[in-house]
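Hi team, as promised in this morning's meeting, here are the two structures we talked about. I've kept the exact order from the run log so nobody has to guess. The first one is mostly here for context; it's the second one we should focus on when we meet again. Sequence first, then the predicted structure tokens.
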Amino acid sequence: MTEIAFERPPYPEGQAGGDAAIQLQEYFKGERFVFDAAINPGRVSAFYTVVYKALGEIPYGVTCSYKKLAERAGRPSAARAVGQAMRNNPIPIILPCHRVIASDGSLGGYSGGVAIKEKLLALERQYAITRKDTATWTPNH
């Protein structure tokens, strides 16, 4: 999996995606909380690589501010650059940039649109209630 794009129509069932497509279907049904499909964000900078690694550590149902994610990536003053990394994330949902919000609690932006970000967060809130591990992670971890 190298890309998820919101603006294109979906492939006909069974024609694309492999493991990632199956895992995304499970995610939307509330049956998958962690992705393990092979992904490749393509050629990205060393900074983006570190940010995407930290992003992948945010558990299902948990949000983190751009600032806290910058801190977790070892660049505490790079919140705006983290925002750009989220904007350029080629694999949203699997690399869960929808879980990154503004420090004031507002949603910020999202490549698929804020309405989709709201729906993804609502989906995760709905199923996170039954999960025990989400409460143990903090952005300061």
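And here is the second protein, the one for discussion:
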Amino acid sequence: MITRVLVGVDFSEASKQALERAGSWATQCGVPLVAMHVLQPPAPMLPEAQIALPDPAWLHTMEDHAREQLEAWIRPYAGASAIVKWGGPAEELVSEADPQTLLVVAQVGHSTLERLLFGSTAARVVRLSPCDVLVVCTEKAK
């Protein structure tokens, strides 16, 4: 039994299509829609062997901006909520899901070389997920 629909949003056109599909599923199932954006922490810079960590105020500003943008994206979906986290996109989406969640992600079209070099968030989500996953085939992926 699905108790909520969780969708990963990276603000791409593909994730907009995934959000639309997730919204439809949430409405059909009569369950809450939760949209999540995952910010990836910047790598520390090592100038002259000294570690320079990012300014916490800058990180907070990034998080606030992402939350505002995500809330604007979900405004058309009554009762939808937004989550912004830091980390790896696949791992954070999976950590937020439980067995009763329908997890929705976009499959973005990558070349074979890109998949080999960078992997696929959608593939990692499918492999690690504790729940059903809907991979939305976007126009770019066709």
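Starting points for discussion:
The first strand starts at residue 4 and ends at 8.
Helices lie at 13-29, 56-74, 89-96, 112-118, 121-128.
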